[in-house]
Amino acid sequence: MHQLKIRNALICDGTGAPAYCGEVAIDDGRITAVGTRLDGGAVTVIDAKGLALAPGFIDSHTHFDAQITWDGLATPSLEHGITTVINGNCSLTMAPVRAEHRAFVGAVFRQIEEMPAAAFDAGMRWNWETFADYLTAFRSHIGINVATLAGHSMLRLWVMGDAARERCASVAEITAMQELLRECLDAGALGLSTSWVDIDHEHRPVPCRLASPEELSALCAVLGEYGAVMQVVPEFWDPDLLCTRIDILGDLSRRHNITVTFSPLFDSNATPDLVSRALARVRLQVANGARVVPQMQTRPIDVTFEFDVPTSVFSSRPTWWATILKPAAETLRDFQDPELRRQLVDEAYNGMQPIAMEVHFPDFIVSRCHLEHNKPLEGRRLRDIAEERGCDPVELMLDLAVEEDLLTRFSAISVGHNNLERIVGPITDPLVQIGSGDGGAHVTRFATYGDTGYFFSRFVRDAGALTLEQAVYKLTGQVADNWGLANDRGRIQPGLAADLVLFDPNTIDRGPEIAVADLPGEGYRFLRRAVGIEQVFVNGIATYSAQQGYTEARAGQLVSATRQKAA
Amino acid sequence: MHPIIPPVRPWTYPNEGDNWQSIAARAFPERSVEEAVADLQSWNLYLVFRPAPAMLTCSDIVFTGPPPA
User: Fold this and answer.
1) Do B59 and A212 touch (CB under 8 A)?
2) Which position has the higher pLDDT, A356 or A198?
3) Chain A contact for B63, CB < 8 A?
4) Of A27, A339, A364, A488, whose CB count within 10 A is highest?
5) Between B69 and A22, whose confidence is greater?
6) Claim to verify: residue A61 and residue A101 sit in the same structural domain
């Protein structure tokens, strides 16, 4: 007698093999039998007729490092079928961090990951310093599996103090960082993350960017000892820089026998040949023995903003940027100054595009109005409203912002990574892994959730670019293989953890972007609800269902390199 | 770097404390520093226009040759 049996399911086992109608038995959190028809009954039987059953999806690029300490479900990832999240990307983690660096690390995290300060401060109970103590702080109340990378910037800060922001490390300091990385891996870190791109809240390079090539190589040597992975953010917008970084990664991979993964592989109209050139370079490195894995996100970039907070949409237009950086009262005054308005309008049409985005102001959507009489404008393009009124769309945007004390919310839709024709080939390429979703980050700018549902709706159903089974493989088995998780997760196979998702292959999708005030403290975030996900099991326990929402179960586990190695 | 994979462009890492002049002197010892700096900067606009207070770091890539034609 099994504890749970799921029958009549269309089983996509995470290998990419053809799906079949069958049954899966689960006992004590593990898959114990799989087949077209299993003998023996079960305490609980679920009839999954009409539904697909897949391994739980693995999201390899998330930033729930802070949120996971107050929200053990990493909402809303789990309801999108994700049963394992990999935190700690881009060199940023919440540990190891000495008490004296909490303010700095918090400020950097809030800046790069666009987490509201009020939510961060209200939610974080920062009572740990070491990596082990950080994991202990949340391990008992997680309903989703959590893997965490050790952040290179944090290793530097711990060993070098404030000098980590100023200079290269000495030989002794590099040795100390190696030892600290070993401690993190022994405590449960999945690998190391670093960045060649990110800047802190004071617009200075994050500490890991001060590392010499020798330092990075020394840390990769430690990863090699553990068979652990390194994640890195390269200059993803420039083909020559990106290809050179891929060569560096290939070299590190071969030298230390490690898998290196970079994120994002990002398509942009500004550099339409970038993805194909980068992929050719990856192919060359792989053919020469390296393990270099590009991560590509499924969704196009949408950015929602109000004028009270600077947003990257305006970063390449100096007059806009300088105006928005000012206190709200001054921004309001500037928006009404005739000369400045003339400059702003001119720059809106003729200014440089931000990195990797293509922004057209008249196409901005008025997504939320503060004043009742403006509500009918919600959901409409500036261009269309301006045409009706016989005015300029940018002037209209400024007028609305002024009238509503900067509280009008606008959306720039599909401003990057939105060319399906160019993306569909690479995203289905066997070398490319689905990732870079950034779950838990940028929460006040756009929803970083629902990429899994969007992958099925856009690339399987609409574009017919890959089969259901192939899509499941790219969200499960392939990720598990790349990250060294395959001993325990990523496939429907006896002996593996029973992380499972039941979904309707004909309807699975992401819902519309909505603003929800569910963060600690004041403030809202953007998220998307799931469509077509029926039930999610984490280590054999029903944790979410479309009918009942989240259960009280907290069966999530920490996923670590050491554990995978031992298994 | 891998012996049989030529780089997409010639490049170098900055040393700690480097500036354009010291990189130019190291990369092009036979050329006048002034000319070499001008070339280096034209090949590395992303570094030239990097907004302050960000600085040249030891992990940056500095191209020492032009983009492919």
Assistant:
1) yes
2) A198
3) yes
4) A364
5) A22
6) yes
Of A196, A247, A250, the CB nearest to B59: A196
Q: How many domains, chain A?
A: 2
* pTM summary value: 0.94
A80 and A149 in a common domain:
yes
Domain assignment of residue B68, yes or no: no
Residue A5 lies in a domain: no
- Helices and strands in chain A, H and E counts: 19, 24
Domain shared by A205 and A268, yes or no:
yes
CATH of the domain at A453: 3.20.20.140
Q: How far apart are alpha carbons A204 and B53 in whole angstroms?
A: 6
Q: Is B42 on the interface with A (CB under 8 A)?
A: no
Query: Which of A372, A391, A416 corresponds to the end of one domain?
Result: A416
Contact: A251, B2; criterion CB under 8 Å: yes
Q: Do A251 and B1 touch (CB under 8 A)?
A: yes
Cα distance between residue A52 and residue A18, in whole Å? 12
Q: Once rounded to an integer, what is the mean pLDDT over residues B6-10? A: 95
- Could you say which of A386, A416, A446 is where a domain stops? A416
Q: What tokens appear for A284 in the block? A: 């060359």
Q: pLDDT tens digits, residue range A335-384?
A: 999 999 999 999 999 988 888 888 999 999 999 999 999 999 999 999 99
Q: Which domain holds residue A355?
A: 302-416
Give residue-wise pLDDT tens across range B27-53: 999 999 999 999 999 999 989 888 766
How close B27 gets to chain A, by Cα (Å)? 18
Number of compact structural domains in chain B: 1
Q: What is the DSSP string of A525-560?
A: EEEEEEESEEEEEETTEEEEETTTEE-S-----EE-
* Chain B nearest C-alpha distance from A559 (Å): 30
Could you tell me if the ipTM is greater than 0.95?
Answer: yes
| Cβ neighbours of A199 in B, within 8 Å | 54
- What Cα–Cα distance (Å) separates residue A484 from each residue in A227, A283, A289, B8? 8, 21, 17, 31
Token code pair at residue A287: 């053919």
Is the domain of A292 the same as that of A333? no
C-alpha–C-alpha distance, residues A247 and A295, integer Å: 16
CB pairs under 8 A between A and B: 68
Inter-chain contact B13–A196, Cβ cutoff 8 Å?
Answer: no
Residues of B in contact with A238 (CB under 8 A): 46
Mean pLDDT of the region A462-473: 97
